[in-house]
């Protein structure tokens, strides 16, 4: 059987790529690319990176990375996963979000509308008392008494007008639909998501949690935007263009990978703790 490194090297040369070109495109260090072509997997940062780097290399030179890995799985180093205790999902549930929203929601306009008649009544009483007091001081002046009556009438009229305006029905407010991220399918190697009502400008962030480092590649509309090893506790982001319709994320170590889209943490597939290399596809629908 032809070695996997030889197949990749021949495909690279047929495409007219040098190792430097491939390093620039995939963000994989040149020494790792040489090691893949020579079958020297011992210098890789870890066994799960071998498969991730080979898939990225193959896809870049026009080969089917998944098929190539399957055909040569017997000669690739095995990945031994330590048993990981089941941990809660990093994404808060929709129920908890709704409860939190109900606890913290305070409708200021509704409260003011409810209390406005009481406030206006108090203002009206104070105004009438002030006018009567002024009339008492000037009771000998007929013109003053006429002015007092006029002022009282105007005050009452203005108060009624203000009260009617305050109790009028508020105009309808157009409520913006919240962004949604729904897992459509997952077959162990690829997970498909649909993203609805995404707001632009948008930011796509990938980070590595306490489980360890993770090799990550992010492509938008089929073009690689960023790739490389994300150290535990670190992250990198990609600003999504207005015409973004599809995002592809390749993770070399899914249990350590956390994905955030516009402030929403993506819920991983059910078996993500037992998966190493994984491709996650996000189809953007109804963007705003």
Blueprint of the fold:
Blueprint (H helix, E strand, L loop, with lengths): L3 H12 L3 H8 L3 H9 L8 H14 L4 H7 L22 H11 L3 H30 L4 H25 L13 E7 L3 E7 L5 E7 L5 E7 L2 E8 L4 E6 L5 E6 L5 E5 L2 E2 L12 E8 L3
Parallel strand pairs: 2-10
Antiparallel strand pairs: 1-2, 3-6, 3-8, 4-5, 4-7, 7-10, 8-9
Helix pairs in contact: 1-3, 4-5, 7-8
Provide a brief overview of the structure.
The chain is an alpha+beta fold and 288 residues long. Helix content is 40%, strand content 22%.
Describe the structure.
- Strand 1 and strand 2 form a beta hairpin.
- This protein has 288 residues and is an alpha+beta fold.
- The protein is 40% helix and 22% strand.
- The strands form 2 sheets. The chain has a 6-stranded mixed beta sheet with strand order 1-2-10-7-4-5, with helices on one face. Strands 6-3-8-9 form a 4-stranded antiparallel beta sheet, with no helix packed on it.
């Amino acid at each position: 059987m032809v070695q996997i490194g030889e197949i990749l090297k021949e495909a690279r040369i047929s495409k007219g790529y040098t190792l430097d070109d491939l390093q620039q495109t995939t963000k994989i260090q040149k020494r790792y690319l040489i090691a893949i072509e020579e079958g020297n997997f011992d210098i890789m940062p870890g066994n799960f990176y071998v498969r991730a780097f080979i898939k990225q290399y193959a896809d870049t030179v026009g080969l089917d990375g998944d098929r190539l890995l399957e055909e040569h799985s017997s000669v690739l180093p095995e990945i031994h996963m330590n048993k990981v205790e089941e941990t809660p999902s990093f994404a808060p549930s929709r129920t908890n979000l709704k409860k939190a929203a109900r606890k913290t929601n305070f409708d200021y306009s509704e409260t003011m509308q409810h209390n406005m008649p009481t406030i206006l009544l108090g203002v009206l009483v104070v105004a009438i008392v002030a006018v009567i007091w002024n009339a008492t001081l000037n009771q000998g002046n007929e013109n003053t008494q006429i002015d007092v009556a006029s002022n009282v009438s105007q005050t009452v009229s203005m108060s009624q007008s203000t009260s009617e305006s305050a109790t009028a029905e508020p105009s309808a407010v157009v409520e913006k639909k919240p962004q949604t991220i729904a897992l459509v399918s997952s077959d162990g190697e690829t997970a498909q998501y649909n993203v609805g009502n995404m707001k632009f400008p948008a930011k796509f962030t990938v980070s590595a949690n306490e489980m360890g480092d993770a090799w990550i590649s992010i492509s938008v509309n089929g073009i690689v935007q960023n790739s490389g090893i994300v150290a535990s506790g670190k992250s990198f982001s990609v600003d999504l263009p207005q015409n973004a319709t599809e995002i592809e994320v390749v993770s070399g170590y899914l249990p350590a990978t956390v994905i955030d889209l516009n402030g929403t943490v993506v819920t991983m597939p059910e078996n993500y703790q037992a998966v190493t290399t994984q491709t996650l596809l996000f189809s953007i629908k109804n963007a705003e």
